[in-house]
Amino acid sequence: MKEFIDFFFQPYYANSAFDILLELIAVSFGIASVIFAKSENIMVFPTGIISTILYIIICYKFILYGDMLINIYYTLMSLYGWYVWSFKVSGNNIVITTSKKDDSVKSVFIFLSTIVIISSTYIYFERMKHMTDYLDTFTSAIFFTAMWLMANKKIEHWIFWIIGNSISIPLYFVKGLGFSSIQFTIFLILAIIGYREWKKNLIK
Predict the structure, then answer these.
(1) Is position 112 within any domain?
(2) Among 28, 39, 86, 188, which one is most buried in terms of CB atoms within 10 A?
């Protein structure tokens, strides 16, 4: 048990109290955002924006450029989603739907474009050397696609979150961001619950 605790906290020994607090705050707002998403509450976006902006700072300090780009994208997509969820269509809020062919084509485009952009970024900074860099690229593509689908209230976004979170749990642990690894564990549980709740609402 002691070995596990030491392994978990070892990366934080060299960090300042401010850096640790920053990550904890980002994690807290991230969890709150997913909870709001599960219940279709528009607060998913402002809480998510706070979390992603903090993670932009954290990822820059940890030289995690791929993760920094994904959080910049999260921030922009959260602003877009905030607008879409607030916009009234024929007097009704946007409702949960399944992806149509057009949505699937856009999702594939976003996924492949993300892989190209993140890979190019890592190659430019000479970071495409470790397995974590390849996994970063793959999870970034998954999360970019998930965020776009969520902003448009497509139920499939939960499936992307489930896959991405499952990979990110061990990935962030290896990166030395233990608290973020715990966050992705909570995200995974909430994503499974969220998918079930959205599916019930879709059937209704």
Answers:
(1) yes
(2) 188
Tokens representing residue 112 in the block: 């492949």
Q: Burial, 157: exposed, middle or buried (Cβ in 10 Å; 0-12, 13-18, 19+)?
A: buried
How many independent structural domains does the chain possess?
1
Distance CA 172, CA 178 (A): 7
Structural domain contains residue 137: yes
The pLDDT of residue 36 is: 93
pLDDT of 11: 60
Instruction: Name residues of the chain where pLDDT drops below 50.
Output: 89-91
Quote the tokens at residue 172: 């962030």
Angstrom CA distances, 75 to 43, 153, 162, stand at: 14, 17, 20
Beta bridge partners of 89: 92
Burial 179-193 (b: 16+ CB within 10 A, else e): ebbbbbbbbbebbee
Whether 4 maps to a domain, the answer reads no
pTM (2 d.p.): 0.82
Question: What is the tens place of the pLDDT at every residue in 6-17?
Answer: 656 666 666 678
Residue 115 Cα to chain centre, angstroms: 16
Domain span holding position 140: 15-203
Best CA proximity match to 80, nearest among 106, 48, 128, 123: 48
